[in-house]
Amino acid sequence: MITRREWMKQAARVTAVAAMPGLLDDRALAKTPVDGIQTITGEGSLKAHAAARGLLTGCAVNADLFQNDETFRNQLAEQYNILVPENCLKWNWLRPTAETYSFDDADRLVAFAEAHGIKMRGHNFVWHEALPRWFAGTVNKDNAEKYLVDHIHTVGGRYKGKIHSWDVVNEAIWIQDGRPDGLRTSSAWFEMLGPGYIDLAFHTARETDPSALLTYNDYGIEYDNDEEGKKRAAVLSLLRRMKKDNVPIDALGIQSHIHAASKDGFSKGVRELTKGAKALGIQVFITEMDVKDDGVATNDIGERDKIVADVYRKYLNAALDGPEIKAVLTWGVTDKNTWLNNGTKFRKEHPDRPQRPLPFDADYAPTPAFFAMRESFDKAKKR
Ligand code: G3I
Fold first, then answer.
1. Residue 365 gets which letter from DSSP?
2. Which atom of ligand 1 is nearest to the CA of 63?
3. Which residues sit with their C-beta closer than 6 Å to ligand 1?
4. Across residues 263-270, what is the average pLDDT?
5. Nearest to 173, CA basis, from 205, 213, 219
6. pLDDT tens profile 213-259
7. Are 240 and 232 in contact (CB under 8 A)?
């Protein structure tokens, strides 16, 4: 078992070595922070640089890594001031049967965060995915409202006062389903409860935990192109309608799964969202950032990392140019565990080219994306 002190020495060694490029092979060079000597802990950590601008910074936590990898847990405590569970607060993880709940993984993570003075995000109360196998055969039009309300009361009630912000509803907009308001109809919740499930969920969440910031979370709203422009407009009109109807909502989550190979920009799109949210008096969080680079021509790791870092820098500089965004979370920490490499389709297409979409590589060494994030935090307006 590696002790904290040994872990810190190892981190310092990694940093010190980075100062002597001649000693490193190509792969190791790829690990070299682009500008040489830098501490990445304490004052050099992501959370220290973010906090200096009034920002929260965090990541999605994979329950298995959290359970079995002490270096992973050390990294969480060292680098972040807010965490979100990647999966263990979803219906399929929490609800092994219709009558029972399994809170072990979530309890452990919430306790860890409390012990380290780290805030927690909840993800998510209502989503058309990650529903348990028993759901379709058990939940129907007659009992769906009861299941939804009971779930939010039970899960939200268990962590009452311990959650900074809940993703109450996730990904409820899908323009392709053809509704004028853009609502996703290809959702069990919409099929059983109609569009009213969204307001029901937010009202129930507010009565359950009045201290949590209630968030609507979505993706595909970042880029300056027609398709994402339409989805952005639908998300903003949903938020406006909710505010008009006094539905309790406090924040918008922009997932920010970004593609390095995309030719589209994102500064206009993100500014539209943050300005639109500000006009409604709601906060904005970047909730699930990662930068995938399949489609980027080169296979050279140093070049790929530089391209990914440039996208982090451009996106965060655009997003943090205004004061609206209060938190920046990445969807994972280390390249050794990212949903982007887990998909069977991806593995088949790119067996020898795993993604490197996150601020730390598989050995927990900082990637150029780490330094790009830190620089963007330093450049950000104080919130
Ligand atoms: O843990 C089980 C393992 O025991 C089993 O052997 C394996 C094979 O079926 O499945 C494992 O569970 C998988 C879980 O990830 C943990 O790896 C689930 O099948 C798989 O569906 C689940 O995928 C998650 C996905 O959401 C669906 O819930 C991804 O990890 C997670 O990164 C992804 O996150 C979503 C956000 O919630 C919403 N926004 C997009 C984002 C990426 O898709």
1. P
2. 16
3. 86-87, 90, 129-130, 170, 219, 255, 288, 339
4. 91
5. 219
6. 999 999 999 999 999 999 999 999 999 999 999 999 999 999 999 99
7. no
